[in-house]
Amino acid sequence: MGKLVLYGLLASPPTRSCCLTLKALDLPYEFITINLMVGEHMLPEYLQKNPQHTVPLLQDDELYLWDSHAINAYLVRKYGKDDALYPSELVQRAVVDQRLHYDTSLMFTDSLRELTKRLLFLNESSVPQSKIDGVAAVYDMVENFLGENDYVAGSELTIADFSYVTSIGGLTAYLALDAAKYPAITAWWDRMKQLPYYEQANAEGAAQFEAMVKAKTYTVE
């Protein structure tokens, strides 16, 4: 196995989803911080590796791969001892993919990234009520996804859970999760926290992100 390098920012939820996958697979890797807050993702040397100027970015020998969902699927398929985290069975994989696409389209992109862009990058002093309502709609949908299941794509842990636990963790910085209203999410989140690598891979960065949001003064209009 060649040397794995993960470029990212610990405060970034997608970066932490990759940290969770790497830890779950027990893969050694080097972490290189790319500080988006000071524009390091726009430096020429980074753009040569990732012209989309996003984090995370995985380097595996000569391969440079970005997008956390693509990275996590690649890691499991190449290095996993089995396919448990990203099942090869058609229907199971389709469900995992659907959950990941929901994160891409609505949970992360339309909700979390949009709110974060407004407050942390554009320094706006208000966010639309519709965006906060969108966070509540995400919670409703994830509660529905979970139902009686232990994990977001069924009875077993998958890479979809790594994306969801980091994205939802970010969203709670904007709208607290009501445990009484969302018992399935609450139980699942507690389950995720019991993973032996959760604290190391996710907790510190999640706290950093929450602190960044809480440091901003803004109104909801």
UniProtKB/TrEMBL annotation:
GO terms for molecular function: glutathione transferase activity. It comes from the Eukaryota. GO terms for biological process: glutathione metabolic process. Residues 2-83 form the GST N-terminal domain. Residues 89-209 form the GST C-terminal domain. Homodimer. This is GstE3. It comes from Drosophila busckii. The lineage of its organism: Eukaryota, Metazoa, Ecdysozoa, Arthropoda, Hexapoda.
